[in-house]
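Encode chain A's predicted structure.
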Amino acid sequence: MRLQFIEAGEIVTTHGVRGEMKVLPWGDSPEFLCEFSRVRICGTDYRVADCRVQKTCNLLKLEGIDTMEQAQAMRGKTVEVYREDAPEELVFAAELIGMDVLFNGETIGKVEDVLDYPGNKVYVVRGEYEYMIPAVKAFVHSVDLDSNTMQVQIIEGMRTDED
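Encoded structure for chain A:
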């Protein structure tokens, strides 16, 4: 299901005295957050004045947040990005939760979770059985956010109750 907003990270602390905030990003890399010109925090829209990477985090400066005290008030809040600002072909894990999963035209369950392993993500699919499906082209043939379906290939060993 296509979401309007995607959670992208958490503000963990301030940086300096001019309102910059340190954000722990939840994406694959901190560079991702720097691609957006606006964000949403607690239902309020903000224009991004500056965003840069510092090690595994982002330093984020928002228009209207100009003091350390204003930035401190944002600590612990979630930063969301607008789905419409992201590339169309990009699919976020949050959009996959609840998606119907089909194998050979038959529904085998819904995506319950997306596990993030170093090699690749793994989709946990639950229906009559539970499946662990690696998020690679060999097994995930298509993802359609508009129809909320995913076409997959199942092989022996993906079903969790198999020996």
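The mean pLDDT is 95.
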